[in-house]
Amino acid sequence: MLPQEVIRHKRDGQRLSDEEIEFFIKGITDWSVSECQIAAFAMAVCLKGMDEAETAVLTEAMARSGEVLNWDAEKLGGPVLDKHSTGGVGDKTSLILAPVIAACGGFVPMISGRGLGHTGGTADKLDSIPGYATMPSTELFRRATKEAGCAAIGQTGDLAPADKRLYAVRDVTGSIASIPLIASSVLSKKMAEGLDALVTDIKCGNGAFMQGVEDARRLAKTIVAVAKKAGLPTHAVLTDMNQVLGRTVGNALEVAEAVDFLKGARRDSRLSEVVTALSVQALRLSGLAASDEEAREKTERALDGGEALERFAKMVAALGGPADFTDDVQKYLPQAPVCRPVYAKREGYVVKTDAKGIGTALTVLGGQRVTSDQKIDYSVGFTDFIRIGEYADKDHPIAVIRAADEETFAEAEQMLQNMVQTSSDAPRETSVLIETITE
């Protein structure tokens, strides 16, 4: 069997056999398949698709391409859970949700992705914390999960290595928005974690890979169905991504907002809705709560009582970060030298934002990758981002830009002004929560 034959079969719209898929994934893992062949395969799948059975085989083959964790020896005393997002702009939900679930009695060994296209990655955000090991040994990952109740890391070479190579190629070849590739990427990493249950946040809107509700619903149902075939109970929540989630965009800036949220110093209402909805599904699915009401009460207590913040602080310290990080995050996080507000072209209520364009503006600042080997400037981005429905004028800017120099500031300023539409009429308020998929 040859890699080019597998590529040709999918290019021509044929259904791949189990043996073909497993052969190709083995080749990705042992490097007998080249990067250009991976790119061709990804594009063929992107254009021709895969049915549910093919996607299930692809998922399980990638999950088995490396180590599959088993938590029995740790005797954790609670269910092993995780959450995954399909990617958004300003989405720092994972940084908040993992310690919340830990505070409610779960254990969260979270393997998170890097930035993909215009969207940010949780691992990149955590890399902004000095000393924090996003690529720890499996032993340290296990120990941190047990000690803190949660450990969010990047994808190591030991866990689902085939997905790691495929993910990196997709990022730079325009083959991101494929339901089979997204579903298999999400689930292969999660299956390798040895989970008892999973919740997924499926973004929908102009800042998401799945822009239409129906496409997002199809992806959610595919993920739920494939996961259940593999014995991993999974629920999916569809959420709106037509605007920035929270008030910040950029790695270190989003970490700071997440810590403020955990402290109760500042909690954006839309971000709070997403955190609560996902927490409720996780606690119900795992048996940590018997009802939605009990799950919401546990979530509120974890946040308002300070235990979720404590869990986050323990996680940072366990993975090599400063022991007092949450006491004063600005002491440790990098700061951009240029910091000024940007104003709307025309005064009025914000009626529409281009979330994808805002993510692209972060790339211009250097806060997101164009190529897989590019270094990120963790300090840059946007704070105090305006929401749809709020009024923009000379006293209320669109956002505050934090840039490395005047040139990138000017380019990002022009981009943001073109990404925000205003009107004299206030828009109708819409919920960030769209639908929950359990079957």
Write the layout of secondary structure elements.
Elements: H1 3-11, H2 18-30, H3 35-48, H4 52-63, E1 81-85, H5 93-103, E2 108-112, H6 122-126, H7 138-148, E3 150-154, H8 161-171, H9 179-192, E4 197-204, H10 213-229, E5 234-240, H11 251-263, H12 269-286, H13 292-304, H14 307-318, E6 338-342, E7 348-353, H15 355-365, E8 381-383, E9 391-392, E10 399-403, H16 406-419, E11 420-423, E12 433-437
Parallel strand pairs: 1-4, 2-3, 4-5
Antiparallel strand pairs: 5-12, 6-10, 7-9, 7-11, 8-10
Helix pairs in contact: 1-3, 2-4, 2-8, 3-8, 4-9, 4-10, 5-12, 5-14, 7-14, 9-10, 12-13, 15-16
Structure characterization notes:
The chain is of the alpha/beta class and 439 residues long. The protein folds into 3 domains: 3-49, Transferase, Pyrimidine Nucleoside Phosphorylase, Chain A, domain 3 (Up-down Bundle), CATH 1.20.970; 72-329, 3-Layer(aba) Sandwich (Pyrimidine Nucleoside Phosphorylase, Chain A, domain 2), CATH 3.40.1030.10; 334-423, Aldehyde Oxidoreductase, domain 3, CATH 3.90.1170.30. The chain contains 16 helices and 12 strands. The protein has helices spanning 3-11, 18-30, 35-48, 52-63, 93-103, 122-126, 138-148, 161-171, 179-192, 213-229, 251-263, 269-286, 292-304, 307-318, 355-365, 406-419, and strands at residues 81-85, 108-112, 150-154, 197-204, 234-240, 338-342, 348-353, 381-383, 391-392, 399-403, 420-423, 433-437. The protein has a 4-stranded mixed β-sheet, with helices on both faces. Helix 4 (52-63) packs parallel to helix 9 (179-192), helix 5 (93-103) crosses helix 12 and helix 5 crosses helix 14. The protein is globular, with a radius of gyration of 21 Å. The protein starts with a helix and ends with a strand.
